[in-house]
Write a structure and sequence with these properties.
The chain has 7 helices and 16 strands. It has 2 domains: 185 residues, 3-Layer(bba) Sandwich (FAD/NAD(P)-binding domain); 143 residues, D-Amino Acid Oxidase, subunit A, domain 2 (D-Amino Acid Oxidase, Chain A, domain 2, 2-Layer Sandwich), CATH 3.30.9.10. With 335 residues, it is an alpha/beta fold.
Length: 335
């Protein structure tokens, strides 16, 4: 059956759903996207890091390999959408001895799996980013870049519309294939996802530079402060600060404790943060899976899943969209 005869409904209008819809529509499939926007969607509440190397950790080899594969697709993906990637990479920094040990473990692991990162002293880090605080050491990963997640969402919606994708509040009755790409909410859309996908809550802050404040960092800054991870992702007028992580179901409230932890830890890394304006606090839900790897496959004839990306939804968008298209093309026996 030709692509034009297979009607595809994508459930979910985040980065994964829109990327899959855009890719399928360009290949000739009639596509509709069904989405109920939420202020807690993981794509909307995200830092925008495309960072498989600095996200790597022992036991997540599959996620690392998939992330590296997807990162290689990102320059062309971004060019076609007209979005910009950050011109410089990521600095992973440590502020005390225990945090240095965490970076040492990461560096040793990367060497074992054939990846590398450049070690930097505190002085070298300060030369790259004068606004850093008293950091002991760090790693430079030029290839781990970032994208403005909200600009990406806008570009994807425009690209989908330009390729004939229809947006709807309810799915059409005559669809042939359904792609479940609703992030953490995917768990409620098919019985096989109920025990696989779970919401993982994360809180982020958005800060804007006020007059007289030091400019935001040029690099994405990932740090450990007393064992707690914190990141600062530059934006044109400030940065995104994140991210807490809780197993709290679909509790969308931003906690005072979460905000306090983020600001306190960020001030250690970037002391000038006190001169910035706090313009947004938000909580979003990542789609967690048991092994941190996404679920991108047929669930039953006519139903595909593209969910479970956890912290890597933006990073894995190009490779996921390519995989969904491949499944659609081979799917004659699965509908």
């Amino acid at each position: 059956m030709s692509a034009l005869a297979v009607r595809v409904t994508v459930l979910g209008g985040g980065v994964i759903g829109l990327s899959a819809a855009w890719c399928a529509a360009r290949a000739g499939y009639p596509v509709e996207v069904v989405d109920v926007p939420s202020p807690h969607g993981g794509s909307w509440v995200a830092g925008g890091m495309l960072a498989p190397i600095t996200e790597a950790w022992p036991g997540d080899e599959e996620v690392l390999a998939l992330g590296v594969e997807s990162l290689e697709l990102w320059p062309e993906f971004a060019r076609e959408l007209g979005v910009e990637l950050s011109p410089v990479g990521t600095l992973a920094v440590a502020v005390d001895r225990a945090d240095v040990e965490v970076l040492d473990q990461l560096c040793a692991y990367l060497e074992r799996v054939g990846r590398s990162a450049s070690r930097l002293t505190g002085r070298e880090l300060k030369a790259l980013e004068p606004g850093l605080g008293a950091v002991r050491s760090g790693l430079s990963v030029p290839g781990d870049v970032a994208v403005d997640n909200r600009a990406l969402l806008r570009a994807l919606r425009e690209a989908c519309a330009a390729n004939g994708v229809v947006f709807a509040a309810e799915p059409a009755e005559d669809r042939d294939v359904t792609v479940i790409a609703a992030g953490a909410w995917s768990r409620d859309l098919h019985p096989l996802l109920r025990e696989v996908i779970r919401p993982v809550k994360g809180e982020i802050l958005r800060l804007s530079a006020r007059p007289g404040a030091l400019p935001p960092p040029r690099h994405t800054i990932r740090a450990h402060v007393s064992g707690r991870p914190v990141y600062l992702v530059p934006r044109e007028d400030g940065f995104v600060l994140g991210a807490t992580q809780y197993e709290a179901g679909f509790d969308g409230g931003v906690t005072a404790g979460g905000v306090l932890d983020l600001l306190r830890d960020a001030e250690v890394v970037w002391p000038g943060i006190g001169e910035y304006a706090l313009v947004e606090t938000a909580a979003g839900f990542r789609a967690g899976s048991p092994d941190n790897a996404p679920v991108v496959d047929w669930l039953e004839p006519g139903v595909l899943a593209a969910t479970g990306h956890h912290r890597n939804g933006l990073l894995l968008a190009p490779v996921t969209a390519r995989r969904v298209l491949a499944l659609l093309r081979e799917g004659g026996n699965n509908r």
